[in-house]
Specification:
By secondary structure, the protein is α/β, with parallel strands linked by helices. It has a single domain, classed as 2-Layer Sandwich (Nucleotidyltransferase, domain 5). A 5-stranded mixed sheet has the order 3-2-1-6-7. A two-stranded antiparallel sheet has the order 4-5. Strand 2 and strand 3 form a beta hairpin. Helix 2 packs across helix 3. The longest helix is centred in the middle third of the chain and has 22 residues. The protein is elongated and about 70 Å long. The N and C termini lie close together (10 Å).
């Protein structure tokens, strides 16, 4: 039985954008329709940080070491994965989907997997570690179809 049958949802996400898609046909000729889009405003790390990293005394007279800057951009991406997991739980809990394929950048997929509720995990039929958020829908359909075939 195909993993991408009618009614299967496909989440296509990176650390800043997500498309919630539903397959309206079958796995042989998928037709993905947008259910919802989600995007977060996440400026580059340099725009979110101070002008220079903090410094701490090393204990010697006049000796200081630089502290590593917090990467606010990466933290926002991780929070975005948590937000997606919460949305998916709401959709799953309300019966909006019975099956889902997760398509995300490898790092985001790992973060998302760690955040997903068991109710959503039970509905995951495939995972594709790719960034497809900037691809047109017809390309996403073909890539998802070919990656989960077999």
């Amino acid at each position: 039985m195909t993993k991408l049958r009618k009614g299967t949802w496909v989440l296509v996400a990176d650390g800043e954008k997500a498309l919630f898609l539903a397959n309206k046909t079958d796995g042989e000729d998928p037709f993905l329709q947008v259910v919802r889009k989600k995007q977060q405003d996440n400026p580059a790390a340099i725009a979110q940080s101070e002008s220079r990293p903090g410094r701490v005394s090393d204990g010697g007279h006049g000796q200081k070491s630089a502290l590593e800057e917090t990467d606010w951009h990466e933290l926002a991406k991780d929070r975005f994965a948590a937000d997606l997991a919460e949305l998916l739980y709401g959709y799953a809990h309300h019966g909006d989907f019975d099956r889902i394929v997760l398509v995300a950048a490898p790092h985001v997929l790992g973060e998302l997997r760690d955040q997903l509720h068991q109710e959503v995990l039970d509905k995951v039929v495939a995972e594709i570690p790719k960034t497809l958020t900037n691809h047109p829908l017809n390309e996403i359909e073909q890539i998802v179809k070919s990656d989960i075939a077999a």
